[in-house]
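Why does residue order matter? Because the sequence determines the fold. Keep that principle in mind as you read this record.
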Amino acid sequence: MEEVLIVSGLVGIQVVFAFYLVILNRVLALGVHPLFVVVSVNLANSLFLLPFAVALERKKWPRTLNPVLMIQFVSIALGGVTVFQSLLLLGVEKTSPAIASAMPNLSPGFIFIIAVCLRLEKMEIRCKFTWTKILGTLLCLSGAIAMSFLQTPATTSPDITSQVSSGDIAEKEWIIGCGYLLASVVVVSCTTVLQAVTMQSFMAPFSLCVVTSLMGAIFTAMVQIIVEGKMEIGSSAISPTGIIGIVILGGSMSSVCITYQTWCIKKKGPVLVSMFSPVQTVFSAIFSALILRQLIGIGSITGMFLMFAGLYMVLWAKKKEIYDDADDNEKLSVNDVEKPLLS
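Structure:
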């Protein structure tokens, strides 16, 4: 029953994320400001997770916060919340939920590259698992390029001249949106490595999420005030109450999903949790077609296939690399900075 609960729960979480991503696309299309969404979602996220942090991790809190830990908190909040989520929402607005949910599958490959560059992970040239991860990363990048340049957004203008013009604009917006999504993946990959390093001295994932979400919401609000001159929802046909309700509900749902995923990681490890991420892309495409009437082209399907293949190659190599043949042919666990937060 536990196996069934874990598998069905992980599938359900990806379906929920997919549906919420489609709803966010619709909300942004109606004129809601992306920065306001980031602020509201992270405030709801931090408030919902706070009781879990207090109940489960209070004894793990350090008595004093040293400057290094504070710098890590600020960096994670700026990168993982303000920059990453803002770029992600801009990418969702200009592309589609299906593409936006597919791009994060690049993260395991990027995390591997970053960890190697920072010498947090050893790169054995003669190791087949290392070459498998390299090949998987290249396949993911090829898929991202295919999704960015082989997709042709449809236009609905009846006039041929205006249709060509609007088609060019749509293609440019699509490529810009994919650029936003790619940049967001790079940022979140760097932040994930930093999170893994931080958790080596601050082993309280719920507390870390609460602190960084709250700080990220504050930083994002400051950015909007500096850029826009004020904190505003945006020009939308939806009432402010409705917008706030949708965003807070999404933040609460996200918190529930994070809590459940954390439990699954403790039970089965991060690799198993990561394997279900393509489910979100599939259901995002389904919901986009049913709700938003957005259909993905052959180029995007090809890109998604390459990304999924690359993702599973990297995850397979990571799973096998946990066991390393020692000189006495015994299997020893590998201490890997990618392992705690690979999902």
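Residues 160-198 form the longest helix (39 residues).
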